[in-house]
Amino acid sequence: MGLISKSQAFITGHNLSYCAVYFDQVLLAARLANSSEQAKEHADKMIASLQRVGANFAARLQTVEATAKAANLTARNLPALPPEFYQWAQMRHTELLQFWPATDVGGCLFVIGHALGELRNGLIIANLTMDFTRNLQMDFSAQQQSVPLRLQEALIRYERALQIIENLPTKLPTVQLLRPMYDGIQVQISTSLALMKLGATRSDKAFTLNHKLLQILGNAEQEIQQHLAQY
Q1: Element at 185 (helix H, strand E)
Q2: Is 74 helix (H, G, I), strand (E, B) or coil?
């Protein structure tokens, strides 16, 4: 356990959930490619974008496997296709949660990182499906209906892990960063969910707020990782 730094624990949780957005987009692009000509144009752009970021996500997956190795978990091949990824991610998530006790700082940081990655994932999918619904007249109601629960559950996990860290005898200085970050994100996501619930009449405002939140969460990944690297 000592071989895994606090920063590594956080980023492993984050990468494990955030990488799902790459494979989620692969499935979205496949659906677009099998639709109208206009949708196929969007699919081609998505595929080109995924090719550009593929190496980044592959590196993120490798960080998860590096932590699994440090935890003496069974080695697993990195996933290349969506069905492989979802199975791999579920197994790794379960294994790493079992590896860390509930009151371990590393485990709590893993959970917080995972929650932040899931928030980014959910907001990206929300914005993509709102865009496709509006511009391509396609039905993505199933994906859109799953987003609120995903975001709410991620916030709950973040809050529970943060409370454990706050109540530990040895205080982690990074908690001074994590608490106000959670409070700010929670308020803005609640606002976004309320806007998305109103449907097309507020989709532009929800889209803009989600984009802002994604920038905040992207910065949070780097800020938290750098802060934890000091301890």
Answers
A1: helix 175-197
A2: coil
pLDDT tens profile 5-14: 999 999 999 9
- Cα separations in angstroms, 134 against 48, 171, 174, 221: 22, 48, 41, 30
Cα–chain-centroid distance for residue 164?
Answer: 21
Tell me the C-alpha distance between 64 and 109, whole Å: 14
- What single DSSP character describes residue 81? S
Dig out the tokens for 220 from the structure: 């949070």
Q: For residue 3, what is the DSSP state? A: T
Average pLDDT (57-74) is 96
What is the pTM (predicted TM-score) of this model? Answer: 0.95
In whole angstroms, give the CA distance from residue 182 to residue 176.
11
Specify the DSSP element, H or E, that contains 204.
helix 203-228
The answer to whether 48 and 25 have CB atoms below 8 angstroms apart is: no
Per-residue b/e over 103-120, b at no fewer than 16 CB within 10 Å? ebbbbbbbbbbbbbbbbb
